[in-house]
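Protocol step 4 of 6: structure prediction from sequence.
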Amino acid sequence: MATTADLTRRIDVGLREIGAEADFLPELAAGWAGESAAERDVWYLEWRELVGRLEELERSYRAGAMTAEQRGRYRELLEKLRASLPLLERLGLPSPTVSLVI
């Protein structure tokens, strides 16, 4: 059974990792044409996994399981992802399935 500390840590990791990948999207887009089909498939699968983790964060946010600081970081992440939607579309990567507006 997960403790509150475990959940807090899991949320922090999710926020950090998804945020880092979202920050990397412009750089990825700049080199996308040079990526092989296999590399693009890997990016697709990794991004799809991150989108799934975003759903977990959304559930934690809605359940009130995030600290005030985490809620702020989550809202910032959603803004970043909303701004990245054109890049995701251009790269053929899955868009987040959660609402990007809170």
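Step 5 (inspection) to follow. The chain has one domain: 4-91.
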